[in-house]
Amino acid sequence: MTGPPSGQTLAPVLMTFFAAILWGLWWIPIRYLEGLGLTGGQVALAGNLGAVLAILLYMAVTRQMPRLGRRALYGALLVGLAVSCYSIALVLTDVMRAVLLFYLAPAWSKIIEWAFLGQRWRHTSSLTLALALGGAFLVMGGQLSLAQIGLGDGMAIASGVAWAVGATLIFTGGAARAASVTLATMISATLVAAGFILLVGDTLPRGDALPTIGLGLAMGALYVLPVMALSLWSAQRLSPALLSFLFTLEILSGVASSAYLLNETFDTMQLLGASMIIGAALVEVGIALRVRPARAAP
Predict the structure, then answer these.
(1) Which of 22, 38, 24 is nearest to 225 (CA)?
(2) What is the maximal distance between C-alpha atoms in the chain?
(3) Coil, strand or helix: which one is 97?
(4) Helix, coil or strand: residue 114
(5) Which residues contact 132 (CB under 8 A, 6 or more apart)?
(6) What percent of the chain clears pLDDT 90, i.e. is strictly above it?
(7) Rounded to whole angstroms, how far apart are CA atoms 236 and 193?
(8) Between 268-290 and 249-262, two packed helices, what is the crossing angle to 10 degrees?
(9) Helix (H) or strand (E) holding 173
């Protein structure tokens, strides 16, 4: 399978922009639940589990059976890993750093498309890659020292890598119902969150935290699930690099909202880094939207 045709339609592009804005604001319910006493792992577990229960209910009502090819399944599992790592990173590090470090994903996607999907490496590919990596370098304060990278930073970067590889597998995985891809993704995300809780020696929520857990389940069903379904629907129709670059709109909503509500530091160097990442997105999107669908053979 080589994935959908190279020409892009406007609908998945617009849906991706909309989903990106909502992903950028995702830190707000996550930090709210943390303020009520849940840890990062517990918030991720509750939210992902709520999404699983909701998609299972939807599939039962619509009488859908989960059907996925192997490649799409592996992609969904990796995207689930990305979702949990990212949500936990939003608690463990500054929201700005988590959002911006995740956006090394377009750089990984560009490399994957060239190395594994057979796409030509153009001068614009070098430009977008340089802008994305250079922007991330500035976001980290212009330093490459590992001492600057905490657990939350590392999880944000790992999330970007998992997203890039997972989106590529979903894109090349052939036709599959979005509900099936979403179910596999959210089950994976739930298991990763549970594994993180065990790995760091965290405890499962106590009985007195049940109301907060209920809010977390509701967040998963009403917020995470719809946005994730939109994202995965788009992932089946847009190339991995274009999808990742389109999601950089999350930078605007995430960074602006965290700067305003959390008073997080956003100095000139970080502003320049974010501008470079967004500039890379604009270059990639402009090139992709200029490509016209190939005319169908008679």
Answers:
(1) 22
(2) 66
(3) helix
(4) helix
(5) 103, 104, 106, 107, 110, 276, 277, 280
(6) 26
(7) 25
(8) 150
(9) none
Q: How many residues does the chain have?
A: 298
The model's pTM = 0.79
CA 200 from centre of chain: 23
* Distance (Å, whole) CA 90 – CA 151: 11
The answer to whether 106 and 280 are in contact (CB under 8 A) is yes
Q: Are residues 80 and 187 in contact, defined by beta-carbon separation less than 8 angstroms?
A: yes
Tokens (6 digits) for 53? 């229960």
The one-letter amino acid code at 196 reads F
Task: Give how far Cα 275 sits from Cα of 17, 23, 226, Å.
Answer: 17, 19, 29
Instruction: Read off the pLDDT of each residue in 106-119 and give the average, rounded to a whole number.
Output: 72
Least confident of 107-111, 274-278, 289-293: 289-293
3-state secondary structure 236-260: CCCCHHHHHHHCCHHHHHHHHHHHH
Listed range (33-37, 106-110, 125-129, 254-258) with the worst mean pLDDT: 106-110
Residue 227 sits at the vertex; the CA angle it makes with 222 and 233, to the nearest 5 degrees, is: 130
Q: Which of 232, 237, 273, 238 is nearest to 104 (CA)?
A: 273
Token pair of 102 as six digits: 């995740």
- Return the structure tokens found at 253: 């909503």
The percent of the chain in helix, strand and coil, each rounded to the nearest 5, is: 75, 0, 25
CB 19: neighbour CB atoms within 10 A?
24
- Rounded Cα distance between 84 and 76, Å, is 13
